[in-house]
Each structure stands twice: as C-alpha cells, then as structure tokens.
Amino acid sequence: MDRKSFLTTIGFGVMGFVGSIFGSIGFNSKRTNDICGPSDPSSTTTNFGVVTTPTIGDNYQNSIGAGGSLRGTNTYGSMAHPPFFIKEEYTNRFYFPPNYSNTKSKTKEFQLNLFPLSVNIAHNVNYQAWTFDGVVPGPILRANLGDRLRIHVKNSSPDPHSLHFHGTHDPLEDGWEPIPAFGERTYEIEAGPIGLHPYHCHVPPLMVHTAKGLYGALLVDPPVKRKPAHEFVLTFSGWDTKGQGKNDYYTWNGIAGIYDRYPMKVPVGERVRFYIQNMMEREPVMTFHLHAQTFDIIRSLGTIIPDGHSDVVTIGQTERVVIEFVLRKKGRYMFHPHQTHMAENGGMGWIVAV
C-alpha cells in the first residue's frame, strides 16, 4: 500500500469512528425518549439518554412515556406507579394508630359481600378481579383472642366461592365448601391464636380464585396488649395482567407503588409494627427488606416475643410475620422485596421518619 492509499484508509476509518459515536448518541437519546419520554417535554435540548426526576410540582405528569406508560420518578423508583386518581387516603384503612383499641364485645359480627369488579392496580392497568366488598385486599377484620366471630358472606357472583380462615377453628366452619352463585352463608369461628391470619376463597382452582383478589386479613390481638405502636397491615400480591401464567405486577395492599408515591410517615423514636402476609400466587416466596434499620421478628403465632432479628425476612405463600422497629433518625427508609423484578414492578416503598 502506497502513502496516498494508507492516508485515505486512515481518513475513512476516523470518519467512521466519529460518525458511529454521534450516531449512537442520537439513537440512544431518541430511544430513551421513545421509551421513557423526555425528561423535560418543553425542552428541545437533547438529554443524551439521561432520565431526570420530575419535581414535586410536576404531579407526575412528566413521568408519562410513550403510549401512556409510566416511568420511574426517582433514582430508586418502581417502574410501576399508582393511578393518578388514587389519593393518600387510600392507605388509611391499613393503618392503626398507637392509641387504637378494639371493642370489648366478646361477639363480633362482620358482613362480607363477594362480587367481581374491575380494579385499578397501577397506572393504566385495570384487572378483572373477584373481590370482598369491592376492594383488594378485602377488609381487615380485627378481634381479641377468644372472641366469637360471626361472618355473614353474600356471594353476589355468578361463580361459586367460599371463605376460609387460617388459624384454629371448628372444621365444620373451615370454608372449603363452595357457596353457590348468588347464595349466602354465615361462618362462626373463635378468634385465635394471636397474630395475623389470612382469609381467602378456597374453591378450586384455588390459584385462580386467590390470584384474582379473594383474600384479606384477620388480626387477633392478645389479652395483654402489645406495646403501643404505629401499626400497618401489609399484604403482598402478584398479578398476571397478560394471562400468560406469570406475574407482571406486584403490589402492597393492592396498588403498585402505593408507598413509593405516598410513604408511610412515623415520628422519630416511636415504635413501628408491621403485620405482613404474602398472598402472591405463581411464585413460592418473597422477601421483605428494610434499608438502614434492623427489626425484631415474630414468626410464631400465639406469642408477642420476638424469635429473630434481621433486616430481611423470607415469607412463603400465605405465610405471615410481625416485625417491630424504632427509627432513631429523621430520613427516608426504603423497603422492598429483594427479588429485584418484584421491587421494580410495584413492590418498592418508603417509610419517612419525621
């Protein structure tokens, strides 16, 4: 190769290299905007693929990407978010303040109406659910140890369903027999042992009836009250929205990212207690991990004495656990399953110590 040919070859090589770099930048920026939406829709400046966090004043509108999809709104944000119309008040029914006191009546009666309903589990994601009282998870039932519970169930549905409680009770009240379509039944059980007990439909195919939303929680308090605490009942769920036999969204208390958008707020130095249950179908296990703080673990029913201490706890299907902790410093404490796909698709949240 003579000198002229050599210089020509080198020139084309450099031009190609420079062109590939700028072409890649342009393509990646365009691709990021297509998938995530521009970080500032009013700006004409290329953001070179960097997704920025919307300010509080944006009301999450800058989070809307192509086709109405919703991208993460902070560095550690979930990739799934609540519908815009869901307000913070939604979380109130899962919280019990330190001064909470149940009624002293030894007989407690509950009414549950079971019917199908389209529910919003994430932004632009509706799911044809089966519900107790039109909510997923169903209402939290709370009683004292030894209380007589009378639960009247109305099946306002064209399908057979039932109500099965975990815990100790008369096998004749176990709830595996179906209530026929548009039928009714009253269950009578004694509350116990102390702790958190799932309730759910037990009609085959069980996975379908549970996965579509027919579950809730029964909380049984001890005769001697636990120490005062800010109490939260947390139900973890998975959702197969595409009908492909696998979960693609994950929720705490029925809404993806609910505690990402609306963090729990607790005072510094005051006790916090979580009652956690895993009602996810199609996957055998999830973990609960709390950042920057360890916690006492009460796995065993019938006791209030901790039997472990960690910053992560593993929970199988329908298992439950009580955890207790105190946040000593102001700040934001993240929590999530340590199965990354669950955290990214709705399972990440925050506790704010104020």
UniProtKB/TrEMBL annotation:
Transmembrane helix is among the record's keywords: yes
Protein name as it appears in the record: Copper-containing nitrite reductase
InterPro entries documented for this protein: Cu-oxidase-like_N, Cu-oxidase_C, Cu-oxidase_fam, Cupredoxin, NO2-reductase_Cu
Reaction(s) catalysed by this chain's protein: nitric oxide + Fe(III)-[cytochrome c] + H2O = Fe(II)-[cytochrome c] + nitrite + 2 H(+)
Transmembrane segments: 7-27
Provenance organism: Leptospira yanagawae
Family stated for the protein in its record: Belongs to the multicopper oxidase family.
E.C. number(s) listed in UniProt: 1.7.2.1
Pfam hit, one: Cu-oxidase_2
Enzyme class, spelled out: oxidoreductase
Source organism superkingdom: Bacteria
Domain Plastocyanin-like as annotated: residue spans: 119-223, 248-352
Subunit field text: Homotrimer.
Record keywords: Copper, Membrane, Metal-binding, Oxidoreductase, Repeat, Transmembrane, Transmembrane helix
